[in-house]
Design a protein that fits this description.
By secondary structure, the chain is of the alpha+beta class. It is about 35% helix and about 15% strand. It contains 17 helices and 18 strands. The strands form 5 sheets. A 6-stranded mixed beta sheet has the order 9-8-12-13-15-14, with helices on one face. It has a 5-stranded mixed beta sheet with strand order 2-1-3-4-5, sandwiched between helices. Strand 14 and strand 15 (about 420-430) form a beta hairpin. The termini are far apart. About 35% of the residues are buried.
Length: about 500
């Protein structure tokens, strides 16, 4: 790895109008002997390091079974008649590629690695400190794509206006999910979890079978090649299909707690709702989602919800939102740090905390409006598996869905923040213990909505209070009361000067 970085530093950018990457490539045989080394532009401007090494310097060497160390993800596309480096590597029969950093160009990012894995090539990555050294040497190249990303947007999305000082480096996948777990074996896989995954895609591999393990190698769930004696599950494989992932990934747990009061009132274990109010949720990731939803169903309270033209008791929070938050917490979290996903249910809110800060170029501001958010995956192979299981979509519609479902349900917008290396999402409950549905909200004036809010908080309202609060005449107040009664929102109580109004039902 260090030799590849030394070779990388011999490269020079050949364009004046834009920076080019510094790339070094080393080919090593089974015995660890260096067969050759090359860098980008070594003989001609623009020639990729892999091409120079494999076609110019070592055209007659049989590289089958060798390992290629390259500081930048091999390209996945070139203008014809040029051939992408990833394709060239496969055709040469190279069995293993060790990558320094992923290409920051969104048109290539992760696709070269994905192609290699799909073709049965084992892919590993440089140590994190060496990868950071490569990023530092290529900071102008990386910044060029960050600037382009913010100027033009990606995938048809509007790119935000963010000052350069606020932009973090383009930080793609964390690579932890592809780490082989040397102490694990395919015997640690759950057949039930594998069956669920295959059924969702209408695939009919035998369990176990050579075809299944070949498919899992392509998906990043197993490390090793077919001709090796032992297949090793990766972190992604164990998290998705492990009978008991926790011994291999100790932080792969959801710590769920139901407290009696608010966060300010809940300080000790005595504030938890009995023994059933605490659960450590373990197992394959898809099962963890369902178990966490069961915990939610067992502890969410039913509250009155005003709809037009009816009133009913419903769960205080929409299950679709809670499911979306839990899936995001498991899929996008960092599995490098020894921290758990936290799922806290309080009397007035639900808090979901996921380990790991947002990946650049995403910022908290991207989540504070109900618009489509561009997708930057920390764990792309796990995300892809959840998509195949139809547990999530990969197009950035999750955040708008959360906002829309909360509004329809009668709840305020969610709150997003970063705190102590966690991404924390808070969903607030019904104010005054009563929900006002989206249709009812649409049919009410702003003053009538404030009248409803007053009753939700104080339990009742009178004509005199309405006149004083909103500085309106009694006839105007009475018109509002008649409208709210007609819509089934208010009921009239008492008579004469003792008349007051409460929520219907």
């Amino acid at each position: 790895m260090n030799v590849a970085i030394e070779e990388m530093r011999l490269a020079r950018s050949e364009h004046l109008d834009r920076p080019d990457p510094f790339v070094g490539a080393i080919l090593v045989n089974r015995d660890g002997k260096i067969l050759g080394r090359a860098h980008r532009g070594q003989f001609r401007d623009g020639e990729h390091g892999e091409y120079t090494l494999l076609e110019r310097l070592l055209p007659s060497i049989e590289p089958s079974g060798c390992t290629l160390y390259v500081t930048l993800e091999p390209c996945s596309r070139r203008e014809p008649p040029k051939k992408p480096c990833a394709q060239r590597i496969v055709e040469k029969g190279i069995g293993r590629v060790v990558v320094g950093i992923l290409d920051p160009n969104p048109a290539i990012h992760r696709q070269g690695v994905t192609y290699l894995l799909e073709q049965g090539v084992r892919v590993d990555f440089f140590d994190s400190d060496l990868a950071e050294a490569i990023r530092q040497d290529n900071r102008e190249f990386i910044t060029h794509y960050e600037d382009a990303y913010y100027t033009a947007g990606v995938g048809g999305l509007q790119a935000p206006s963010v000052p350069p000082v606020a932009r973090g480096r383009f930080s793609g996948p964390e690579r932890e999910e592809l780490r082989p777990l040397r102490g694990a074996s395919i015997e640690d896989f759950s057949l039930e979890a594998i069956q669920q995954y295959l059924a969702a895609q209408s695939r009919s591999y035998g369990i176990p079978s050579e075809d299944l393990w070949t498919y899992f190698r392509k998906q990043g769930f197993l490390a090793g090649r077919a001709d090796e004696e032992r297949l090793i599950p990766t972190v992604a494989g164990i998290l998705l299909f492990g009978k008991d992932p926790e011994p291999f990934c100790p932080s792969s747990v959801i710590r769920a707690t139901r407290f009696r009061g608010t966060p300010q009132q809940s300080k000790t274990i005595e504030d938890v709702v009995g023994e059933e109010g605490m659960a450590d949720i373990r197992g394959p990731l898809s099962k963890m989602v369902e178990d966490a939803i069961q915990f939610f169903r067992g502890h969410v309270r039913l509250v009155p919800r005003i709809d037009v033209p009816r009133r009913a008791a419903v769960p205080e929070y929409p299950e679709k939102v809670i499911r979306e938050l839990l899936v995001n917490a498991l899929v996008h979290r960092s599995y490098v740090e020894g921290r758990y996903v936290v799922f806290d249910m309080f009397s007035d809110r639900i808090v979901v905390a996921s380990p790991g800060r947002l990946l650049a170029p995403l910022t908290i501001d991207d989540f504070r409006t109900p618009v489509r958010v561009r997708v930057v995956h920390r764990n792309p192979w796990i995300a892809d598996a959840f998509s195949r299981l139809e547990l999530m979509e990969l197009r950035g519609f999750g955040i708008p869905t959360i906002y829309e479902e909360l509004k329809k349900h009668g709840l305020r917008a969610p709150e997003f923040r970063e705190e102590l290396e966690y991404l924390v999402v808070t969903v607030y409950g019904a104010e005054g213990g009563v929900l006002v549905g989206d249709e009812a909200q649409r049919l009410l004036t702003d003053r009538q909505k404030q009248m409803v809010h007053h009753v939700r908080v104080h339990g009742r309202i009178t004509s005199r209070e309405c006149e004083k609060m909103f500085r309106v005449k009694r006839e105007t107040a009475n018109q509002d009361f008649r409208r709210l009664i007609d819509l089934g929102v208010f009921e009239r109580r008492g008579a004469g000067r003792a008349t007051y109004y409460v929520l219907a039902g």
